Amino acid sequence: MSVPAITLRAASLEDAPALGRLGALLVRTHHDLDAARFIAPTPRTERGYASFLTSQLAEPDAVLLVAEGPGGVVGYAYAVLEGLDFMALRGPAGVLHDLAVDPGVRGQGIGRRLLEAAVAALAARGAPRVVLSAAARNEAARRLFERAGFRPTMIELTRET
Fold first, then answer.
1. Residue 36 near residue 24, CB atoms below 8 Å
2. Roughly how many angstroms between the first and final C-alpha of the chain, as a whole number?
3. Which of 11, 38, 108, 140 has the most CB atoms in a 10 Å sphere around its CB?
4. Pick from 86, 83, 109: nearest CA to 95
């Protein structure tokens, strides 16, 4: 079976529906992993995610990339160059907030390509490092990040009250 050609590019306003769909997938995936910790998707999640992500297109420190195949957008990465963060005990860094790939095309290296492109874009903006968070139960994502050279540095613990 041949793998379809995938192009990485900067996102545009026209990508809003796909960004909303993939953002809602990200919300749903996390909620399914730990419903007590992660917010549940609602009927407005897709529209809200699309609105937020497209609002970031005008932000000079934001990186919003999409992976596009013959059938349209199949993945995206969203990251931001951030300054000193005393609450996170972290100096300036690029922060990868989202990486999502449609389940139907996973395992083809699309996530890795988006990750590397986002890291490169952050480095080009002067990021001395890139940090990210992954759900503890999302083994596939954690393996991807570790294979790409990321190391665990913080562990979030949650307790309901």
1. no
2. 51
3. 11
4. 83
Return the domain boundaries, the chain: 8-147
pLDDT grade, residue 2 (50/70/90)?
low
Q: Are the beta carbons of 84 and 131 closer than 8 angstroms?
A: no
Gap between the Cα atoms of 93 and 113, Å rounded: 20
Say how far apart CA 111 and CA 136 lie, in whole Å. Answer: 18
Q: Mean pLDDT, the chain, as a whole number? A: 96
Instruction: Please work out, in degrees rounded to the nearest 5, the angle formed at the alpha carbon of residue 119 by the alpha carbons of 129 and 132.
Output: 65
Q: For residue 109, what are the CA distances in angstroms to 3, 105, 106, 116, 151?
A: 10, 9, 7, 11, 20
Tens digits of per-residue pLDDT, 71-126?
999 999 999 999 999 999 999 999 999 999 999 999 999 999 999 999 999 999 99
